[in-house]
Amino acid sequence: MNLVNPAVIVVDGSVARAGEILLTPLRRVVASASLPAAWKGTSLLPGALGVTAIALGAVLTVLDTVFGMSVHALPAAPPEAVANILASVLHESPASPGEIGP
Predict the structure, then answer these.
(1) First-residue to last-residue Cα distance in the chain
(2) Partner of 43 at 20 to 30 A CA spacing, among 36, 67, 74, 90?
(3) What are the angstrom distances between the C-alpha of 56 and each of 14, 29, 35, 60?
């Protein structure tokens, strides 16, 4: 954390599903283990992708490996947009606003 100094740290999976009961102590631990200047302005937030996060990561890894698409160079997009792009590639119905995944 001290070397990278991110603006946002996103956690997903069971930690995110647990909500503030785990996020609050996690914020305290990260803050105590970081330099104050590095932690200042950093947010630790639950992920918005839920159970689709692992699948999306796998798809992006394949795109990067097989097609040479650097996913890190792509502009950030709302989770619904990413879900809709993947749904169109997989020929599924697109997600409605505020809905992610099936």
Answers:
(1) 34
(2) 74
(3) 17, 29, 32, 6
Note whether 34 and 63 are same-domain residues. no
Q: Is residue 100 part of a domain?
A: no
Q: What is the pLDDT of residues 63-95, one digit of tens each?
A: 778 877 665 555 566 666 766 766 666 665 544
- Statement to judge: residues 43 and 55 lie in one domain: no
Encoding tokens for residue 70?
Answer: 């650097």
pLDDT digits (tens, 9 = 90+) for 4-26: 778 888 888 777 888 899 899 99
Its domain, for residue 79, covers 51-89
Which run of H or E residues covers position 9? strand 8-11
- The amino acid at residue 45 is L
Q: What are phi and psi of 75, to 5 degrees?
A: -70, 150
Residue 3 placed within a domain: no
In angstroms, the CA 53 to CA 63 distance is 15
